[in-house]
Write a structure and sequence with these properties.
The chain has 3 helices and 4 strands. The chain has a 4-stranded antiparallel beta sheet with strand order 1-2-4-3, covered by helices on one side. Strand 3 and strand 4 form a beta hairpin. It has about 100 residues and is an alpha+beta fold.
Length: about 100
């Protein structure tokens, strides 16, 4: 069975999903996360994120600064966040746990 969401319900659904992603902050129509990881973990995380992002046809911004990795997901061009972008953020969290626990 398919469920159709009107734009208001969709917005609420995405907002609810974002509250489950601790550490992510919303900046307009983008979400951002800063991770305190070393260079080796950054490389492993970047590879894992690339695989998921390619499958979702999305391009997150991942950058390395000093001792942290910054990730930004979303278009930033006035387009609202999509379900795919929130899903990507959740998968990034999974990848983060995998590279820091392993």
């Amino acid at each position: 069975m398919r469920v159709l969401f009107n734009s208001r319900a969709k917005h609420d659904y995405l907002s609810d999903a974002l509250t489950l992603l601790s550490g992510w902050t919303r900046e307009g129509e983008q979400i951002r996360r800063t991770l305190m990881i070393d260079d080796t973990q950054h490389a492993a995380l970047t590879e894992r994120v690339k695989v998921v992002a390619d499958a979702l046809h999305l391009r997150p911004e991942i950058s390395r600064r000093a001792d942290s990795t910054q990730i930004r997901v979303g278009h930033g061009s006035g387009e609202p966040l999509t379900e795919g972008e929130v899903l990507l953020a959740a998968r990034i969290e999974d990848a983060y746990r995998a590279v820091t626990e392993g």
